[in-house]
Amino acid sequence: MTETAPIVNWVPTRDFRRACAVCQWCDSRSLPIPVGADGRPFFLGVGGQGWLESPYPISHQHADGSRGSKYTCPACAQLCATT
Ligand SMILES: [Zn+2]
To answer: 21 C-alpha to center of ligand 1: Å?
Structure first.
């Protein structure tokens, strides 16, 4: 177990022009989607994949050490919706 590995809410592609969102609940990843000016995945207008974004400023640090917006995959979003 690597304690130094940062918890990430999204993973940029090699060219940093796209990123995969990482589900905050199950760690599954989205397809690569275009990122906004600050490097975050830009979900507005993407649709179709069913991912939800909990928007936070890029400077916001969460208790788990990750920063910025958190994302929920379609499967987990469905679980949330039915509870
Ligand atoms: Zn999930």
So the answer is: 10
